[in-house]
């Protein structure tokens, strides 16, 4: 009996004009999104390669390591083709310094602001917005539509249990629609190598996981809409309710959670922090003023001796100041990072009320374009900073931390200046998260997607068991 | 005929059936009726008399407030899945899946009725028997007229081959010719031994084929006549009086009963 209802539901969907139209639209959108994603990735890759090459050229044009302005760049993530995440929003280049804070700049959207207005149409968008809407369009009248049209009565004039009926309908529509959706996805995946996107076996697994979580996300909206359809008396009502739920899940909750978390956890902005650091620096300098003024030497000290004593006095003061500033900066940065992390956690926690946020978090994590991308990039850069600092110290005697440079150029007409070899500069490697790591990190969200499914399937089930069949 | 059927167990039985809806409307008041194999029982009544309510209780779409409905001796509301194996149903307005062809619809509903052994030719025979044109077999239901849908409905009921059949105003809205064909089919099914409970507001049609006629007014079975008893009655007069009696909400059915007896 289950199989019979399952197959009927499947056939009914496939034979409907609703299906024909939305299948065509979805297929075009999905394949288009693969195309656009690939274009976007290739453009990012070209920019990355150009930046790296530019940096090498710049090194090669120098004769002194002290003159080098070394920049490291974040390579684009291949799976950002599918799920952009924050990859277009974060700075991709960091100007290297031997010590001190590193700052990433040059976001993709900064370079091409037009994209920032309309964003890209990636798979996360297609699933999150388009397919969830289609799920509602397909299932909003699954139950009450059959009641209004009268087929429900004719079905239940037979020896059919309600559980079998709703189970068959849910399974039939889910399988029918997801198999249909898989077709353009598979076409899109097959297109990737042709479009010039080479994925490692790791990344194929992650891509498969993204698509599976997308289908789970689609399924939960289907079950949700069917549940609503078994609770509202008329299809027009259930469509309206479904639409309102959709608007909340897709548009309101994710944004509201960020706003609310901003209220709940106060985090000073970056400018405030910089100002705070500067104030402290000035304060310390003012405190040192009397000490500088009180510099004195025993009478009869040689002038050259005085000079060197003064210089060491000043540098002593300066280095204690620097130590204090470093400690202060470290503390304030840590405080800032902790607060920001808490705010993020609150925002993410709140947003997980919405399945759409859960899917976004899961898919960006799997694609390697989640919030962690920025952290990983900064971590990699900070690690590299040590390597760079050691290298510069070895080459120049200074750690390349900035400040004043004294350069003595002794011109000797006989000798050609020797240009630097960029290959000597240690390579920056962005350490990508492993498959194990990303699956572990996305486990909560994948679990939540499954939980939402169970919840909504269960809800639809219960709603139908109590449904008035007349 | 009556003497024979009394010995057999009834296939459909309403015992002290009362239904009071949540809003307090008493749709059925202590209804008693039995339908034996090879019998047609016509439930006659105007709009709101309680006909659909009765059939809905037999199909377990609603629960009776008190009393029981039995199909083949099985309580329809405590063991509906078992009870419904013994009954086929044709509604006032048969609705099938609009995107399926007649064949696909018949196939689905007949299988749902527990019959999976049929071949296409069996479906064709049934559809021919109910008078559906062959050209329509593979057309989608959305292009069907009401008469064509009723034909599919009765074909499904025939193929389910259950011992009891519930018909809820099956001929309302059909043109006279289609109504007559439908009535003839119902008569044939009775002759095959089915127990048929048919609700209708058409007293002429009821008299034409029924073995028993019960007149339902505001949930009360105010009169019960055998076909033989209806023979001498002036139908037109009865009809007008009966309908008028209902329409004016007289609520006092004695005149009607006097006329009948
Ligand atoms: N769901 C319901 N809730 C309340 N009253 C109802 C409901 N369904 C039917 N009724 C009332 O019960 C009475 C009998 O209705 P019904 O059995 O549909 O009549 P019929 O089929 O003979 O036209 C009517 O007065 C009708 O208004
Ligand atoms: Mg009715």
Short summary:
The complex is a heterodimer of chains A (470) and B (261). Chain A has helices at 2-14, 17-60, 108-111, 113-118, 123-139, 144-149, 151-155, 162-195, 201-229, 235-264, 270-293, 303-351, 355-367, 372-396, 435-465; strands spanning 71-73, 93-95, 104-105.
How would you characterize the overall build of this protein?
The complex is a heterodimer of chains A (about 475) and B (about 260). Chain A has about 475 residues and is mostly helical. Chain A has one domain. Chain A has 15 helices and three strands. Chain A has helices at about 1-15, 15-60, 110, 115-120, 125-140, 145-150, 150-155, 160-195, 200-230, 235-265, 270-295, 305-350, 355-365, 370-395, 435-465, and strands spanning about 70-75, 95, 105. Chain A has a three-stranded antiparallel beta sheet with strand order 1-2-3. In chain A, helix 2 (about 15-60) runs parallel beside helix 8, helix 5 (about 125-140) packs antiparallel against helix 10 (about 235-265) and helix 9 runs antiparallel to helix 13. Chain A starts with a helix and ends in a 5-residue tail after the last helix. In chain B, the strands form two sheets. In chain B, strands 6-7-8-3-9-10 form a six-stranded mixed beta sheet, with helices on both faces. Chain B is α/β, with parallel strands linked by helices. In chain B, helix 4 runs parallel beside helix 6 (about 145-160), helix 5 packs across helix 6 and helix 10 (about 235-245) runs antiparallel to helix 11. Chain B starts with a helix and ends with a helix. Chain B folds into two domains: about 10-85 and about 165-260, Rossmann fold (3-Layer(aba) Sandwich), CATH 3.40.50.300; about 95-160, no CATH class. In chain B, strand 1 and strand 2 form a beta hairpin. The longest helix of chain B has 16 residues, at about 175-190. The model of chain B is unreliable at about 1-5 and about 245-255 (pLDDT under 50). Chains A and B meet through helix 1 and helix 7 of A and helix 3, strand 6, helix 4 and helix 6 of B. The structure holds adenosine-5'-diphosphate and magnesium ion (MG). Magnesium ion binds next to helix 2 of chain B. Magnesium ion (MG) binds near residues 51, 52 and 169 of chain B.
């Amino acid at each position: 009996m289950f199989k019979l209802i399952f197959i009927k539901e499947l056939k009914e969907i496939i034979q409907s004009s609703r299906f024909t139209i939305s299948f065509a639209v979805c297929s075009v959108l999905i394949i288009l999104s693969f195309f656009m994603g690939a274009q976007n990735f290739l453009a990012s890759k070209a920019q990355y390669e150009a930046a790296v090459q530019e940096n090498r050229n710049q090194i090669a044009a120098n004769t002194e390591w002290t003159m080098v302005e070394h920049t490291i760049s974040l390579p684009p993530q291949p799976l950002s083709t599918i799920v952009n995440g924050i990859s277009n929003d974060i700075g991709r280049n960091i100007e290297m310094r031997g010590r001190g804070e590193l700052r990433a700049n040059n976001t993709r959207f900064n370079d091409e602001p037009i994209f920032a207005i309309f964003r890209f149409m990636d798979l996360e968008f297609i699933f999150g917005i388009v397919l969830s809407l289609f799920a509602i369009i397909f299932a909003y009248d699954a139950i009450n539509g059959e009641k209004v049209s009268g087929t429900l009565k004719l079905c239940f004039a037979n020896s059919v249990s309600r559980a079998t009926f709703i189970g068959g309908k849910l399974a039939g529509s889910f399988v029918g629609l997801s198999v249909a959706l898989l077709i353009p996805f598979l076409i899109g995946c097959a297109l990737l190598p042709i479009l010039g996107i080479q994925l490692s076996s790791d990344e194929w697994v992650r891509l498969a996981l993204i698509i599976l979580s997308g289908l789970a996300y689609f399924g939960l909206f289907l079950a949700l809409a069917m549940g609503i359809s078994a609770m509202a008396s008329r299809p027009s009502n259930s469509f309206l309710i479904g639409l309102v739920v959709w608007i909340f899940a897709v548009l309101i909750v994710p944004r509201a959670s960020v706003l609310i978390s901003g209220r709940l956890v106060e985090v000073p902005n970056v400018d405030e922090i910089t100002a705070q650091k500067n104030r402290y620096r000035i304060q310390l300098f003012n405190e040192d003023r009397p000490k500088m003024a009180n510099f004195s030497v025993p009478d009869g000290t040689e002038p050259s001796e005085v000079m060197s004593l003064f210089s060491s006095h000043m540098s002593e003061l300066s280095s204690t100041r620097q130590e204090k500033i470093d400690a202060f900066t470290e503390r304030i940065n840590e405080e800032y990072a902790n607060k920001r992390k808490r705010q993020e956690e609150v925002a993410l926690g709140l947003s997980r009320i919405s399945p759409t946020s859960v899917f976004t978090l899961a898919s960006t994590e799997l694609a390697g374009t989640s919030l962690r991308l920025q952290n990983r990039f900064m971590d990699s850069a900070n690690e590299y900073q040590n390597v760079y600092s050691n290298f510069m110290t070895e080459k120049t005697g200074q750690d390349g931390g900035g400040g004043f440079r004294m350069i003595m150029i002794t011109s000797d007409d006989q000798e050609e200046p020797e240009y630097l070899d960029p290959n000597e500069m240690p390579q920056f490697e962005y350490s990508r998260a492993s498959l194990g790591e990303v699956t572990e990190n996305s486990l909560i969200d994948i679990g939540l997607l499954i939980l939402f499914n169970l919840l909504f399937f269960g809800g639809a089930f219960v709603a139908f068991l109590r449904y008035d069949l007349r | 005929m009556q003497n024979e059927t009394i010995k057999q167990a009834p296939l459909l039985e309403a015992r002290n059936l009362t239904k009071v809806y949540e809003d307090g409307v008493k749709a059925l008041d202590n209804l008693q009726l039995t339908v034996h194999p090879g019998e047609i029982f016509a439930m006659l009544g105007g709009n709101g008399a309680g006909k659909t309510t009765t059939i809905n209780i037999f199909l377990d779409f609603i629960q009776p407030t008190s009393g029981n409905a039995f199909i083949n001796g099985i309580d329809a509301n405590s063991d509906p899945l078992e009870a419904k194996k013994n009954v086929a149903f044709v509604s006032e307005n048969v609705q099938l899946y609009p995107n399926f062809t007649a064949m696909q619809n018949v196939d689905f509903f007949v299988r749902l009725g527990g019959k999976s052994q049929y071949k296409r030719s069996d479906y064709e025979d049934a559809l021919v028997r109910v008078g559906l044109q062959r050209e329509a077999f593979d057309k989608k239901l959305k292009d069907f007229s009401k008469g064509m849908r009723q034909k599919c409905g009765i074909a499904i009921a025939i193929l389910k081959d259950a011992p009891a059949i519930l018909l809820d105003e099956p001929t309302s809205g059909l043109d006279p010719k289609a109504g007559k064909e439908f009535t003839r089919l119902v008569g044939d099914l009775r002759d095959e031994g089915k127990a048929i409970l048919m609700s209708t507001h058409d007293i002429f049609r009821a008299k034409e084929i029924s073995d028993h006629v019960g007149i339902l007014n505001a949930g009360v079975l105010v009169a019960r006549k055998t076909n033989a008893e209806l023979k001498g009655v002036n139908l037109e007069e009865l009809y007008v009086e009966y309908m008028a009696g209902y329409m004016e909400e007289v609520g006092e059915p004695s005149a009607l009963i006097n006329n009948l007896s």
